[in-house]
Amino acid sequence: METNQFDEKAINALSVLLENFWILRADNPALYQMVREREKVLKRYVDEKMGFDLIVHQHFIKLEKIPVDAKNWMGIQTFQEPRDYAIFCCALAFTENRSVDEQFLLSDICEDIKDLYPGELPLDWTNYSHRKSLVRVIRQLENLSLLKVVEGEIDRFATDSEQEVLYETTIYARYFMRSYPKDLFSYETKDEILAGEWERHEADERRKRVYRKLIMSPVVHREHEDDPDFAYIRNFRNRLREDLEEHTNFRLEVFKNAAMLVADERKQGMTLFPDQKGITDVAMHAAAYVRSQESYQSDEMGRIRLSRIGLEELVDHVKECYGAGWSKRYREATTKTITDELTEMLKDWEMLERDSLTNGYMLKPLFGRTTGSYPHDFNGKEDVAIEQKQ
């Protein structure tokens, strides 16, 4: 039943659209139907506030989510090196040239990828590293439902380049790539592609930039004294808060140097901080320690600068204070191992970045917003509950 009201179903539908690349009717008919029933109000909202296109197809629904800035965490998490992405693009070119339900062998796509591959050094499927890249790519194509396995197992290809797998192309293969304002070959950099997105949103670019940042990123930091996007958030915080709370499952929090959307309760399908991983316990304890020590001084943007040695010293202090309650893995891990994992996790959540001038690190304002401490009756046992504080 269609409605013109942005009701609870519309809020949940928007959440599903934001959290998923697309909704396939064959896999999730109930979700597909829920979005279809709220199609009009959803299209109007995402276009007006974010400038996103909602594509409703008889086989799938897809919200085209274009970020303001490309972030490391936006990549395909299973890919490990640039070669994976290059092979992925070649594989997409292969699938787009195949008819729906057309069957082909793994050796067919291997040959086409070799011919299309743009690297200075050619691909060699006798090279184990190259085969592993292909396995990661094929797995991703399967996960996205661009390819369907008819017979065989791709993992065997990693150990034997003569292994065959029979695939067929799905209807979704030709819809994976989004359309661009102009010919893709006319762009030379990713920044040009992102800049081209705003040619059709010139009249209300600022509002849509702010909504995209708030919706798609863990945090919007004030990057400099006259940051126009952050100034917009501060000036219109009440209007933004009211609108976002009415149309999403989040509420807006605005501080001097950071703004973010916060979920008051966990909902299935959301990616939230903190999660159940042990490294987030380390991160929250590190934040609590930094906030308790006057020696850590922030600059006017709320950033704290640390060298690699300083970061490892911080980990040592935090482990000494809180490590008794960490999981066995982190109780026994070396300082270097913990520091490496911590920095990668904090970078993904935009709580830390590398300082290109000093090659050190900057802890960003979001880092200090969520801290962790033990209950008063903590007795040092493993897997103790963490008390989260905002």
User: Tell me about the biggest sheet?
Assistant: 3 strands, antiparallel
Category by helix and strand content: alpha+beta
Q: From the 3D coordinates, which CATH architecture of the largest domain would you assign?
A: Orthogonal Bundle
- CATH fold name of the largest domain, please? Arc Repressor Mutant, subunit A
Q: Which geometry do the CA atoms define?
A: globular
Spatial separation of the terminal alpha carbons: 40 Å
Q: Please give the count of helices.
A: 14
Order of helices and strands: HEHHEEHEHHEEHHEHHEEHEHHHEEEE
Strand content is 5-15%
Q: What level of helicity do the residues show?
A: 40-55%
Mean pLDDT: 89
Low-confidence sequence ranges: 381-390
Number of domains: 4
Structural Rg: 24 Å
For the secondary structure, the number of strands is: 14
Query: Which strand order does the major sheet show?
Result: 1-3-2
At the first level of CATH, the class of the largest domain is: Mainly Alpha
Structure characterization notes:
This protein has helices spanning 8-19, 29-37, 39-50, 82-96, 106-116, 128-143, 190-196, 205-216, 228-235, 237-247, 278-292, 308-322, 328-332, 335-348, and strands at residues 23-24, 53-56, 60-64, 103-105, 147-151, 166-169, 220-221, 251-254, 258-262, 304-306, 352-354, 361-363, 371-373, 387-389. The protein has 390 residues and is an alpha+beta fold. It has four domains: 8-64; 74-175; 189-262, no CATH class; 278-389, Orthogonal Bundle (Arc Repressor Mutant, subunit A). β11 (352-354) and β12 (361-363) form a beta hairpin. α4 crosses α6 (128-143), α11 packs across α12 and α12 crosses α14. The longest helix is centred in the middle third of the chain and has 16 residues, at 128-143. Pfam families: DUF2398 (PF09661).
